[in-house]
Write a structure and sequence with these properties.
mainly alpha, single chain
């Protein structure tokens, strides 16, 4: 059976949540690699949602608010990821 875009998004969410969990639960060892993995997995996902999914959600009255809320959340994620790279080196 072919994978749908929703299946892909759900799988990507699981990967990102797993990496976030590792970052939250592990010590300093490997944090830079985990952060890089997070950014590599998260940013294409964010861009894909913003370019493909959210424009369609905004077209439907019932999902318009969800789209705007998600766009706002993505803005926060992008903001948080920028300085997070420097936190890797702080002990």
């Amino acid at each position: 059976m072919a994978q749908t875009i929703v299946d892909t998004l759900m799988q990507e969410h699981k990967v990102v949540l797993s990496i976030l969990s590792e970052l939250a639960n592990k010590g300093v060892s490997g944090r830079e690699q985990k952060y890089s993995s997070l950014k590599e997995n998260l940013m294409p996902h964010v861009i894909g949602e913003e370019q493909v999914l959210y424009p369609r959600l905004k077209e439907v009255t019932e999902t318009r608010d969800i789209a705007f809320e998600a766009i706002e959340e993505h803005g926060a994620v992008k903001t948080l990821l920028k300085p997070a790279r420097w936190c890797i080196y702080v002990r």
